[in-house]
């Protein structure tokens, strides 16, 4: 990453690529997930109009381009009283742990995870079908336990939460784990279609490493694959297995084009055309009637019967079926938890405020990631965002809030995700329910920027081969500086250079005000501007 290709906003260095990871320009510390490692910072001074930088040569090599975050707390608890308990072992949990220690929290941290390994980069399961957890872990179990002093309890299932006595109940033994602060980060559970034959062998969903192992073992050369669902998990898996020389790959989708609900019909059709060029066959505007057993092995899948919108049925031979039809919030354990009756909605989501605290409780319980229904910046619209980057950022925000005694800032990060679909697809914003799109570029060549409009306002941006547009657009969305639909239609685009200077000028104006202000005024400016380093 080069500085000339990066964004400066609120004293941050932003990646121009898909992750939009942000780092402090002063310290190199992580300011925005999903970066698991910080950057080195070097002393610099100006003399006779020249800038001089002093650095350890070892830290300037490519292999040492990054470093682990500096932890302000050793992780050695100063007391034996209950501390932070985190339910879940995913992206939100990991980033919360790191943020707690990075911001000086010195109490106990207990993580209760159903999975048998440390928190992993879950995106690599669908994007590359990686099956070795050691290649996916952000930090090893031993490192989390020794360096971060985390009581990591893997293979542990939470059965309920007792709000009255501040404890979490686990396992069939009904052991109670006390907490001072509770972070619910239990993620999602893959949905299965309620159709005949759904429980036959070799029908898979993808959530964890064990799922990836089963899919990997089933999809050997010459096998026939049917994929139910045509959005991101499904289509990323299609990309991952296309080169395996399978006999057939059939995709069934209810919409008119893959990705239609998120990316729109035009982009979806272009991506469908790309996949068809690789031998993938699509059955869109269709639904599954039933799944039929194999004639040779009655417990295994043999075919899928798909019905089109016109009522025509087609039988698709299948040695394996992958269901990618969404996830439900993993909050079943809260059904047996007194006090959560009115806090969990019909979908299983937990409603939180702008600080990610569970609404209706005393402020000591947070919910993050796939399970959290939180207010969107700018609109206040309540939405649940299923992406590990959002979970990671919410984990970092929650960890900081807890470490600083509950004095946090509203969560205002713009959701960002990416997907390999022939080319890298980048996306930022919340485009659900968009009512119009503006296309800039050539969809057939997969070189474009698409703006998603809702109520005459740009709410999301997607691109392929047009970096760093999405990186810039995410900041413009956050700052409320995105060009209007009418400006875009008139030929204006995301102001790459102007946006950079505009943000830098804005940053300098606030910094100048902060320098002149007294300590209390500086703190207020920092809270309002997000420039925490100047507080």
UniProtKB/TrEMBL annotation:
<keyword id="KW-0560">Oxidoreductase</keyword>
<dbReference type="InterPro" id="IPR028202">
    <property type="entry name" value="Reductase_C"/>
</dbReference>
<feature type="domain" description="Reductase C-terminal">
    <location>
        <begin position="417"/>
        <end position="489"/>
    </location>
</feature>
<dbReference type="InterPro" id="IPR036188">
    <property type="entry name" value="FAD/NAD-bd_sf"/>
</dbReference>
<dbReference type="GO" id="GO:0005737">
    <property type="term" value="C:cytoplasm"/>
</dbReference>
<dbReference type="InterPro" id="IPR016156">
    <property type="entry name" value="FAD/NAD-linked_Rdtase_dimer_sf"/>
</dbReference>
<dbReference type="InterPro" id="IPR050446">
    <property type="entry name" value="FAD-oxidoreductase/Apoptosis"/>
</dbReference>
<keyword id="KW-0285">Flavoprotein</keyword>
<keyword id="KW-0274">FAD</keyword>
<comment type="similarity">
    <text>Belongs to the FAD-dependent oxidoreductase family.</text>
</comment>
<dbReference type="Pfam" id="PF07992">
    <property type="entry name" value="Pyr_redox_2"/>
</dbReference>
<protein>
    <submittedName>
        <fullName>Uncharacterized protein</fullName>
    </submittedName>
</protein>
<dbReference type="GO" id="GO:0016651">
    <property type="term" value="F:oxidoreductase activity, acting on NAD(P)H"/>
</dbReference>
<feature type="domain" description="FAD/NAD(P)-binding">
    <location>
        <begin position="84"/>
        <end position="395"/>
    </location>
</feature>
<dbReference type="Pfam" id="PF14759">
    <property type="entry name" value="Reductase_C"/>
</dbReference>
<dbReference type="InterPro" id="IPR023753">
    <property type="entry name" value="FAD/NAD-binding_dom"/>
</dbReference>
């Amino acid at each position: 990453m080069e500085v000339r290709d990066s964004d400066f906003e609120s004293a941050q260095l932003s990646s121009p690529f898909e992750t939009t990871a942000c780092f402090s320009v002063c310290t190199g510390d992580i300011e925005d997930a999903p970066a698991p490692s910080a950057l080195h910072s070097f002393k610099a001074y100006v003399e006779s109009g020249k800038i001089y930088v002093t650095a350890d040569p070892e830290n300037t090599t490519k292999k040492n381009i990054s470093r682990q975050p500096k932890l302000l707390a050793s992780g050695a608890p100063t007391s034996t009283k209950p501390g932070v308990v985190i339910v879940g072992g995913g992206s939100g949990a990991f980033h919360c742990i790191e943020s707690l220690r990075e911001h000086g929290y010195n109490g106990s941290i207990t993580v209760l995870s159903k999975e048998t390994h440390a928190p992993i980069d879950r995106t690599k399961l669908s994007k590359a079908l990686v099956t070795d957890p050691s290649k996916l872990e952000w930090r090893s179990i031993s490192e989390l336990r020794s360096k971060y002093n985390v009581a990591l309890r893997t293979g542990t299932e939470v059965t309920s939460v007792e709000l009255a006595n501040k404890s979490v109940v686990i396992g069939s033994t009904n052991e109670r784990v006390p907490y001072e602060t509770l972070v619910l980060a239990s993620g999602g559970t893959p949905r299965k279609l309620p159709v005949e034959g759904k429980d036959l062998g070799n029908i898979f969903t993808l959530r964890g490493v064990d799922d990836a192992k089963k899919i990997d073992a089933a999809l050997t050369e010459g096998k026939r694959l049917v994929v139910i669902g045509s959005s991101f998990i499904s289509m990323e898996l299609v990309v991952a297995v296309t080169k395996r020389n399978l006999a057939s790959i059939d995709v069934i989708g209810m919409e008119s084009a893959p990705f239609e609900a998120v990316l729109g019909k035009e982009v979806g059709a272009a991506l469908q055309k790309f996949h068809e060029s690789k031998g993938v066959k699509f059955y869109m505007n269709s639904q599954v009637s039933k799944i039929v057993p194999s004639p040779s092995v009655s417990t295994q899948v043999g075919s899928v019967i798909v019905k089109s919108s016109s009522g025509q049925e087609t039988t698709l031979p299948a040695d394996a079926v992958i269901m990618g039809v969404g996830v439900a919030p993993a909050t079943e354990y809260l059904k047996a938890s007194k006090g959560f009756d009115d806090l969990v909605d019909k979908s299983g989501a937990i409603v939180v405020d702008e600080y990610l605290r569970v609404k209706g409780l005393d402020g000591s319980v947070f919910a993050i990631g796939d399970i959290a229904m939180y207010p969107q910046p700018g609109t206040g619209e309540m939405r649940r965002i299923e992406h590990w980057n959002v979970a990671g950022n919410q984990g970092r925000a929650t960890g900081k809030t807890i470490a600083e005694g509950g004095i946090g800032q509203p969560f205002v990060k713009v959701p960002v995700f990416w997907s390999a679909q022939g080319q890298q697809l980048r996306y930022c914003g919340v485009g659900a329910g968009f009512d119009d799109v503006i296309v800039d570029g050539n969809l057939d060549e997969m070189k474009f920027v698409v703006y998603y409009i809702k109520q005459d306002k740009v709410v999301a941006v997607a691109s392929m081969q047009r970096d760093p547009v999405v990186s810039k657009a995410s900041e413009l969305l956050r700052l409320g500086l995105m060009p209007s639909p009418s400006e875009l239609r008139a030929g204006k685009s995301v102001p790459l250079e102007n946006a950079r200077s505009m943000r830098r000028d804005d940053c300098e104006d606030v910094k100048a005000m902060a320098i002149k202000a007294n300590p209390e005024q500086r703190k207020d400016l920092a809270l309002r501007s997000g420039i925490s380093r100047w507080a």
